[in-house]
Amino acid sequence: MIRRRLVVGVTLVVALAIGLGSWLTVRALEGRLIDNVDEQFVSGDLGTDIRERLLDRRIGQRSADVVDERRQAAYVQYSSDKQVTRSVAAGTVADPQPLPAGAGLAADGTVSTIGSVDDGGPRYRAVALATSDGGSVVVALSLADVDDTLREARRIQLFVGIGAIGVVGVLCLILIRRAFSPIDGMIATAGRIADGDLAERTDVQDAESEVGRLGTALNRMLDRIESAVAEKTGSEERMRRFVADASHDLRTPLTSVRGYADLYRQGADDPESVALGMERIEAEATRMSRLVDDLMTLARLDQRREPASAPVALGHTAGEAVDAIRVADGARVYDLDVEVDTPTIVMGDADQLRQVLDNLLANARSHTPPGTEVLVRVHTDEGSVLVDVTDDGPGISPEDRTKAFDRFWRSTRADESTGEGAGLGLSIVQSIVQAHGGEVHLGAAASGGVHLSLRFPAGPTPRPTDDHGVSK
């Protein structure tokens, strides 16, 4: 695991740092203590003894045991052939220390560190001086106290280092666990998401930290995944419902066609029956054709392709749609009100926008009784172009308004005059309007009828032209 490797790695680094620091500290202490010992050869009583006695030319005739009555140092006199002729051991008379091994020490007055003649003896700082008979005298100060101090220092450093490493390891483990706790939360969240709960999100406490930025990015990714899954699920549900409803609506006219064909096959071959059957078959075929056209339109809109983008004068398009419905339906009154002071230009597909207006007028024709007045108003409002289609028919209940844009839903409005349509008209209207960046709203008119309002983003204002049609 990452946290385990981090704890081990940090602890090892701290251990190495403590070990290096301890070694340097002991080395510095050892050097300082040895310097203090060397000072005794220069400025201490031992130095005075050496200067007054050992450097005297009569050293060869004197005994080494008279040099230091205080026995603070060890003295060893060697003959010219490196044999010990006289010696005085350091320490007490009852417990003398082993003599220094100074036979090979150069008699040039240089202070050096040497060992003892016994393996278990202490180290010495020693200086060798030549005597008049060709031999030498070695004066040595024991480093036993120095070595004891260094051993104690190493022991203290070891215990302190182990304790420090243990504390650092525990603190590191606690801090890393705390730092990784949001990641543990992310892992748990990912597990719940994998189990199907796409609404889960990670808790981001510090959005500026690295873990916080990771959590924010994960939540953003989860939002997009949830949206994509929801969109896919919704699309699949709509497709299943679409196929089921389409199959149901196609089955009715097909059943009628098959029924009239069976009547003809069973002997209904008189001219009147045949004419009636052909008329019914033609009507059902026309109905199926309209339904298939609407299904094809919705299928193209569901592909979410961008509509054509060209300037369209909605006022002019609305005028064409009203003229067409007046010719097809003389039982109702269709009025048009287009704002003339401001251009009602939108960017979009002229054919699709014309289909929107045709569907709205066809909806009014299908669901209002004869004599109904229908008003189409096109005007502008704060950077938008609005199209309002209002009738004074029987209206629609608030409950039905929430379903009016569902595919294959048919209104329960009173006095449905024709009963035509498959319940796709307003679905097509909504899809086209939304594809053009607009909004559609269904409400109640002041007269109690239906008020359908469309809002589109206004397009660019056309440049004025001169009398010859050339832009100024």
Record keyword descriptors for this entry.
472 residues, alpha+beta, five-stranded antiparallel β-sheet, five-stranded mixed β-sheet, 9 helices, rod-shaped, disordered C terminus
Number of helices: 9
Which oligomerization state do the chains in this entry correspond to? single chain
Quantity of strands, as a count: 12
Straight-line distance between termini: 74 Å
| Rg result | 54 Å
Shape: rod-shaped
Strand content: 15-25%
How are the strands of the largest sheet arranged? 2-1-5-4-3
Sheet having the most strands: 5 strands, antiparallel
Can you give the mean pLDDT?
79
Structural class determined from secondary elements? alpha+beta
The helix content, as a percent range, equals 40-55%
Order of H and E elements: HHEEEEEHHHEHEEHEEHHEE
Low-pLDDT residue intervals, each spanning 5 or more residues: 55-70, 413-419, 468-472
